[in-house]
Amino acid sequence: MRAPLLFRVYVAATSLLIPFAAWSETRKLRRQGVPVLRAHEKLGHASQPRSGGGKLIWFHAASVGESLSVLALITRMGEMLPRAQFLITSGTPTSARLVADRLPPRTVHQFAPLDAAGPVSRFLHHWRPAAAIFVESELWPQMLRMTRATGAAMALVNARLSAKSRAAWAKKPALAAYVFDVFDLILTQNDDMAQAMVNMHAPAGRVARGINLKSMSAPLPSDPSVLAPARVAIRDRPVWVAASTHKGEETIVLDAHKKLLEAHPELLLILVPRHPDRSSEVAGIVNSGGFSCAIRSRGEQPKKGEAVYLADTLGELGNWYALSDIVFLGGSLFPIGGHNPFEVVQADAAVLSGPHVMNFAETFADMTETGAARITPDAEALAEAVGMLLEDSSQRDAAKQAARDYVQGKSDQLSSIATRLIRMLKLEDETL
């Protein structure tokens, strides 16, 4: 297939911009504490050797959620392919740190190369992947076409593009067809996304519904050195968590908390904004709502009389889930798309969410039908749901059990997805 004009323009532009992008990206990583050797992985310079034995299967994900979502799949494929080696790439220091603590056997992590000829060429020359599996919406045109040119088999799994991304691809049909043609298999999260991929000129015969790999993720890690002092500070206070909140949602959550305090005066809200750089803004909202709060980034613990604990740090969500079995997921009270309910379930907590859950539409539809999740569209409904779960342990236990049953049903499908990938990517000889 001939490269469309827009692709050729993109390649030319990246060749001009790569010096500036390389400087910016490596500087950003260095500011976040990444050693210089590892920061240069962005330029395609590997920091680890490639093992000589077995085919190498490369997984590429964007950030924390996507990276963690494929670890169970890598583990299962590793059990089926005992001679294979695995590489997982991502783009953020947080994802690198969390993945490094949970790498499956025979797996290494690297930062993904920038989408330009030099970095991608160096990366591919070193790692020589037999297969490349991309996750969700990480569709870098040059990386995809150069990988395909090596002869590597390729798949897109857990495919999910936002409405904005779909509209953008729809305006570039020739480029979309050229990019999506690299994949031997495209597995989407649901039927609607499968049809959307076909509408965006993905090869219809290679598109199929898979499963949401985030349902396969292991529980988020928790740190005893963080949990122990928090538990001492909290003592026997009842606790609920509002996780991954976005701008505008904190006010609604705090209104619900104010109502709850009337019946539960010792209740503690652990408020976890999606973006920790909003910490000062959120602290101001908390204070203007009449609450005093402790702030995690300052090393503070919630004291008696403080009704809110502002957990404004990255990579610690597993700690806060471990402190409560009632979790409200933000990004859902406004049209943002919602966040991952599976992480809540795996922490053995009841799931609450607002109504705007486009990113997990089928998941929440199934979970609410079975009682595994509850939708709370406003402060009043949220206060009512949290109050019910606080006061009625049988209802709380029933919600948690329904959620566990739902996730267990999904996990039974993991082997079939792994088998399909092995077959479609022609990796069967690694089972010997």
What would you say this structure looks like, in words?
This is 3-deoxy-D-manno-octulosonic acid transferase. Keywords: Cell membrane, Lipopolysaccharide biosynthesis, Membrane, Transferase. The structure is a single chain. The chain has 432 residues and is α/β, with parallel strands linked by helices. The protein has 2 domains: 226 residues, Rossmann fold; 188 residues, Rossmann fold. The strands form 2 sheets. A 7-stranded parallel sheet has the order 3-2-1-4-5-6-7, with helices on both faces. A 7-stranded parallel sheet has the order 10-11-9-8-12-13-14. The radius of gyration is 23 Å and the shape is globular. It starts with a helix and ends in an 8-residue tail after the last helix.
Notable characteristics:
14 strands, 432 residues, Rossmann fold, alpha/beta, 46% helix, 7-stranded parallel sheet, 19 helices
**Beta content:** 15-25%
Please tell me how large the radius of gyration is. 23 Å
Report the average pLDDT across residues.
91
Strand-pairing-aware structural class: alpha/beta
Largest sheet: 7 strands, parallel
> Strand order within the widest sheet?
3-2-1-4-5-6-7
Name the CATH superfamily classification of the largest domain: 3-Deoxy-D-manno-octulosonic-acid transferase, N-terminal domain
Q: What is the CATH class designation of the largest domain? A: Alpha Beta
Separation of termini? 35 Å
Organism: Roseobacter insulae
Active site: 66 (proton acceptor)
GO cellular component, one term: plasma membrane
Pfam families: Glycos_transf_N
